[in-house]
Amino acid sequence: MSDLVTLLYDLSLSYGYLGVFLASLAGSVIPFLPVPYLIVVILLSGTLDPFALGVVAGIGGALGKATSYFLGRSGYLISGKGTQKNLEFLGRFIGRYGDLGVFLFAVTPLPDDIYLVPLGMVKFPFWRFMAVNTLGKVILSVAVAYFGQAYFQLAGSTLGPSSLGPTILVIVLTVVVTVLLARADWELAYRKYKSGGLREVLLGTLAILRISGRSETAP
User: Quick check: 145 pLDDT over 80?
Assistant: First the structure.
């Protein structure tokens, strides 16, 4: 994972906005492979214009997600029973929201493939998907870029501009959050929400993220 992130960063550093676009596209194009390309956005937010950086990254990330949509549209069978169950439960949980669901998954760092594949399966209009998905990805990327700029300015004034600590911390936190969200048990989250609402989901966060040391099975 770290080698791939380094490759995307080097690509962006060498080719500027074009490199950012290609890195975001490459980081999103393979379904169910969580590549935290937003690390690149954060790391370059101190040298490139945050707004332009976010727009370019958002467009690249949105275009990459078209593969997840068409994977579902073609009816391709996803390997692995666990993934299929997650798709089934999460798709049932939010499938009725359509555009809102696309936007919420695009504008947050949630693993959106588990929503986009079922979206393709039900033949949700492609151009509506792309428009809403692009809007969400651009908003997320622009927000991350401005956060990165503010973060490095604050860290630079506190620790000095040459300190590697803030950069390392950003990389580690982004990778950890990406991995946790990708491996979360969304079927369990669905069951907890149905049984006790948001409070039950929050209380079961450790089990949902599979870091509680034990797993919960369906009754």
Answer: yes
Query: 167 exposed, middle or buried (CB, 10 Å; 0-12, 13-18, 19+)?
Result: middle
Among residues 177, 167, 211, which one has the least CA distance to residue 9?
Answer: 167
Question: Taking the model in full, what pTM does it have?
Answer: 0.68
- Model confidence pLDDT, tens digit, residues 77-123: 544 565 556 555 655 555 566 788 889 888 887 778 877 877 887 67
CA separation (Å) from 186 to 35, 57, 193, 214?
19, 27, 10, 16
Task: Measure the CA angle with vertex 30, ends 93 and 20; round to 5°.
Answer: 110
The ranges assigned to domains in the chain are 2-161
Tokens of 198: 């948001």
Q: What are phi and psi of 47, to 5 degrees?
A: -115, -25
Task: Look at residue 152 in the predicted model and tell me its pLDDT.
Answer: 75
